[in-house]
Every structure is written in C-alpha cells, then in structure tokens.
Amino acid sequence: MNLETSPPVTETLGVLETAALLRELTAGLIALDDFDQALAALVRITRAALAGVSWCGFTALRAGEPAGVAASDASMSGLDDVRYGADTPAMDAIRRREMVGAADLAAEARWPDWTPRARELGVRGVISAPVDVDDQVVGAVNLYAGESDTLTTGHQLTAMLLAEHAGLLLAAVRDRQRRAAQADARDAALLGDGVIGQAVGVIMTQRGCPAEDALDVLRSAASSLAIPLREVAERLVSTVSRPREN
Q1: May I ask the CATH class of domain 9-179?
Q2: Mean pLDDT per 10-residue run, the chain (246 residues)?
Q3: From edge to edge, which strands make up the β-sheet containing 65-71?
Q4: CATH class of segment(s) 192-241
Q5: Quick check: pTM over 0.85?
Q6: For the chain, which residues make up each domain, given as ranges?
C-alpha cells in the first residue's frame, strides 16, 4: 500500500460510517440472486456512503477469466474491466492477495498503461482491495478519489472491512443464483413430464395463472396430502378426464 501522503488519522473515516456502510450493503444485497445486480448495488451503495470517494468499481474473475465488472459511473467502467488490460491496481490486488493503492497517481509508476487513462478520467487516487467470493470467483473492490491525497488510512481500513463483508455477501448471492437455476431446471423437467404437465395445464386453465404458479399449487397440494407430486397430478388428471354421468 502506498498512501504515505495521506492526511492525519484525525481526518480518517469513523467506525460509525463504516458500520453504516456494511449495514446498508447487507440490506441491499441480502435478497438478490443475480450476481451482476449485486455488483451494481455494491458499487452504488459504496460510492454514496464513503466521503472522499468519487467513484467505486468492482473487478471479478472466474478461473482467471473476466466474470463481471461494475462501476458506479458507466464512463469509468473501463478502469475495472480486465479486457482493457491486466496492468491495473485491481489486478495487482488480486494477484498479490493484498490491498494496493496510491494517494497521488501523478507520482505513481506501477501501472504505466492504466494510470494515464485513469488520470484522463479525473482519477487522482485509488485503493483496490482483493475480494474472495468462493472457490470459483475472486475480485477486487476499487475506490477512486477525484483529488490527490484524499484517500486516508481510514479508507484503507474501510476497504479491508468492505472487501471481507462483500465477499460473504456475494458468495451468498452466487449460492442463491445457483439454487434458483437448479430450481428452474427442476421445474422445466417437471413441466416436461407428461402427467405433471397435464395437471399443470388443468390448473392454469382453472385459475388463469402461469405455469410456475400452477406448479406451486400442485406442490402445495402434494405437501398438504403428504403424497408424491406425480400421484397428485395423476389424481387431478384422472378426475377431470372422467366422463360426467348424465
């Protein structure tokens, strides 16, 4: 970490501000099951919550390949996207597994391709902290300052806590995303099953509801009756197929 020119510790972020950020992140990401949406929420909330941070970005890698990128300002997204080059603070943080940064990019020589582009966009300081999401995805959260010597030791501590907390939240999002995809696959298989598909069609006709809701009705009936889903479907199809007596 290279923030030797930071202001005194008395000007750093407080514990309350950091705690408020982590609470807001938890509230914003707790119910999401889409990874890209979660990244977008993370950078938006972080940017709005941290004094002295002009922009926030996130770089994500899956098995060494780009897995996602988010920026609080769309015009800054290229600074976080590894497709535009691997010589960046984010990639340094990911490779080294430690926080990196610079309080004044005018005096920074570590990222000769990235730094001029960042300065053209108005970036004067940066902190990148590595984020471990799960065994497939790693990343870095990137804090950008529009003025030199704005990022302090308080921002370093906040970035460290933010990276740890974000990793846990994003891992939960990916787990929910996987579970949702698996549930969708199971539902598709059930709807493709002859008798269950027929039963779903009956319920859709009777209730005027979509297939997903009709399948939920069928599941609820199976749970209430404590019998297999297929048996409920067979009973329903048999009932509606039975000829009416005159």
Answers
A1: alpha beta
A2: 47 73 93 93 95 95 79 90 82 94 94 93 96 94 96 93 96 89 69 77 86 83 81 82 58
A3: 65-71, 55-62, 137-145, 125-132, 100-102
A4: mainly alpha
A5: no
A6: 9-179, 192-241
